[in-house]
Design goal:
Blueprint (H helix, E strand, L loop, with lengths): L1 E6 L4 E6 L2 H10 L3 H8 L5 E2 L14 E2 L27 E6 L19 E6 L7 E8 L1 E6 L2 E3 L11 E5 L5 E7 L6 E7 L5 E4 L5 E3 L18 E2 L1 E2 L5 H6 L13 E2 L7 E7 L2
Antiparallel strand pairs: 1-2, 2-4, 3-4, 5-6, 7-10, 7-12, 8-9, 8-11, 11-18, 12-13, 14-15, 14-18, 16-17
């Protein structure tokens, strides 16, 4: 509806003039004139010209300004809880309500307190990830700064398998090469076999031991470089490429940029 004003004895009334869409609504709902007026004014203080309201003049559908009293806002019903922000390990979900039952009007006060609340959800622990990794020759693995043990870590050319928490932030590996070939290859998968990460050039590697290098908050300085890909023809790709799962990620044998480095430190952020 289009609103105009009507001058009256006590003040000015709000006069509602129906639009084409208003008329279509009335026809579709077989509504009376009074129902039509109630709809466009929101059902508040409706008047008609036959009611002899002073400030409505000859307007049939009108709000008499002299009769408008303050209406304080009231809360409507809570919405359904929204989607949880995490599938496991704890997330948050929210729900809302609006100040529309009734809405504040004519100088009435807004609803107090908050129109949104939240709660924890999906607090069960996420299933562990599985890590598959080996190096030539001796491997040490850290998860978020804590050294982890697994069979085969100190055995040349043997793949090690270990479970790591899905909440882990960083994988760090140290590989000692006692001579001859060298390299690191591995992957991490979730409980459904989906790829989480694989060794590739996105890892950072260094030949220098630095305090805190295996921790998530460590700042990589000038000695850290993108890992070097040792190529498709590397013997570890031929011997173990099929043993290390990776459905989509292109796992590679990595090292620093120097074949003379005997001890290499490499790290990769998970999340």
């Amino acid at each position: 509806a289009v609103v105009s004003t009507q001058s009256g004895h006590y003040g000015r009334g709000k006069c509602y003039h129906y639009t084409e869409s208003d008329r279509e609504w009335r026809a579709n709902h077989e509504a009376t004139e009074a129902e039509m007026c109630e709809r466009v004014t929101g059902g508040k203080f409706t008047r008609g010209k036959n009611d002899m309201v002073p400030d409505c003049g000859t307007c049939w559908c009108c709000q008499d300004q002299s009769a408008l009293i303050p209406v304080d806002g009231g809360w409507g019903f809570w919405s359904d809880w929204g989607e949880c922000s995490a599938e496991c390990d704890g997330g948050v979900q929210t729900r809302e309500r609006s100040c529309t039952d009734p809405a504040p009007a004519h100088g009435g006060v807004e609803c107090r307190v908050e129109g949104e609340e939240s709660r924890e959800c999906n607090s069960e622990q996420c299933p562990d990830y599985t890590m598959y990794i080996l190096c030539d020759d001796v491997l040490t693995i850290y998860v978020d700064g804590t050294e982890r043990q697994a069979a085969g870590l100190s055995t040349w050319n043997v793949m090690s398998t270990l479970n790591i928490p899905a909440s882990s932030e960083l994988i760090a590996v140290k590989c000692f090469n006692g001579g001859g070939g060298y390299g690191i290859i591995g992957s991490v998968q979730d409980a459904e076999g989906g790829d989480i990460l694989a060794t590739d050039s996105s890892w950072k590697c260094s030949n220098t031991l630095e305090s805190g290098w295996s921790l998530p908050g460590f700042k990589e300085g000038n000695t850290w470089r993108a890992a070097t890909d040792l190529g498709d023809g590397h013997f570890m790709m031929a011997d173990h490429g099929e043993d290390i799962p990776s459905s989509n990620m292109n796992k590679r044998v990595i090292w620093t940029g120097s074949s003379s480095d005997t001890t290499v430190y490499c790290r990769k952020t998970i999340k």
